[in-house]
């Protein structure tokens, strides 16, 4: 058990619907990351937060995607107007960073999204 | 952008044989991390290498970081069925998001 939790674990939705995922990181970690993983591929970086500030967004994160971490604790990832190409495993990870030195990123179990 | 290549994509070995996966980055890395993912599971951290030329061992696993900090390898001695899974390397250029390779799927035949 890595301590990072994600909800829901599975989500099936119809194309065009909006979905929201939640990630609860390890409590003392100040960094929170979102990744997307499709079958047979490695995780692809989407975005990350340092406390409540969103510091970097990948070009993979289209304007239909939005992530928040309002109080520097849990985070949500919302996908609007879902498309079949959004079907993937969405992984959250957290770590502690001090003085620009990163410790291990611990991954949650992921949310598997299927868009019909 | 930064790219991380990993070979081979698949590796079939007989139980007891050795296994090696190689990772190469297009840019110099501040550190490299290795993860293992079982089928249906999520990536689980194995190790982080930071120093040029660093070698670390964990029981039957040996990890190396190249002198130029652009390549790395994972070697497993005398594989066991519990070693089955996908091994990913992930490169970091600082304290930002990781760039993962596509992974090496290790299949072990008893």
Task: Provide a descriptive summary of the structure in words.
The complex is a heterodimer of chains A (116) and B (110). Chain A has strands spanning 5-7, 10-13, 19-24, 31-37, 44-50, 53-57, 65-68, 75-79, 88-95, 97-98, 101-102, 106-107, 111-115. Chain A is an all-beta fold and 116 residues long. In chain A, strand 10 (97-98) and strand 11 form a beta hairpin. The model of chain A has no long low-confidence stretch (mean pLDDT 92). Chain B starts with a strand and ends with a strand. The model of chain B has no long low-confidence stretch (mean pLDDT 93). Classes of the chains: A mainly beta (116), B mainly beta (110).
Helix content of chain A: under 10%
Number of strands of chain B: 11
Strand content of chain A: over 45%
Succession of helices and strands of chain A: EEEEEEEEEEEEE
What is the strand and helix layout of this fold?
The complex is a heterodimer of chains A (116) and B (110).
Chain A: E1 5-7, E2 10-13, E3 19-24, E4 31-37, E5 44-50, E6 53-57, E7 65-68, E8 75-79, E9 88-95, E10 97-98, E11 101-102, E12 106-107, E13 111-115
Parallel strand pairs in A: 2-13
Antiparallel strand pairs in A: 1-3, 3-8, 4-5, 4-9, 5-6, 7-8, 9-12, 9-13, 10-11
Chain B: E1 4-7, E2 10-14, E3 19-25, E4 31-37, E5 44-49, E6 55-58, E7 61-65, E8 71-76, E9 85-92, E10 99-100, E11 104-109
Parallel strand pairs in B: 2-11
Antiparallel strand pairs in B: 1-3, 3-8, 4-5, 4-9, 6-7, 7-8, 9-10, 9-11
């Amino acid at each position: 058990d890595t301590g990072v939790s994600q909800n829901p674990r599975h989500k099936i939705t119809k194309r065009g619907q909006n979905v929201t995922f939640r990630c609860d990181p390890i409590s003392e970690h100040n960094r929170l990351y979102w990744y997307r993983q499709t079958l047979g591929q490695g995780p692809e970086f989407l975005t990350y937060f340092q406390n409540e500030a969103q510091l970097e967004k990948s070009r993979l994160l289209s304007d239909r995607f939005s992530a928040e971490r309002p109080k520097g604790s849990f985070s949500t990832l919302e996908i609007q107007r879902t498309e079949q190409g959004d079907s993937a495993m969405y992984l959250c990870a957290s770590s502690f960073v001090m003085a620009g030195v990163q410790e291990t990123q611990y991954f949650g179990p992921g949310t598997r999204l299927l868009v019909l | 952008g930064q790219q991380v290549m990993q070979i081979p994509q698949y590796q079939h070995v007989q139980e007891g044989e050795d296994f090696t996966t190689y990772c190469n980055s297009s840019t110099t890395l501040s550190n490299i991390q290795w993860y293992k993912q079982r089928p249906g599971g999520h990536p689980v951290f194995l190790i982080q290498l930071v120093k040029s030329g660093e070698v670390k061992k964990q029981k039957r696993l040996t990890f190396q970081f190249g002198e130029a900090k652009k390549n790395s390898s994972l070697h497993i001695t005398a594989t066991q069925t519990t070693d089955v899974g996908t091994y990913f390397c992930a490169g970091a250029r600082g304290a930002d998001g990781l760039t993962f390779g596509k992974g090496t799927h290790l299949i072990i035949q008893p």
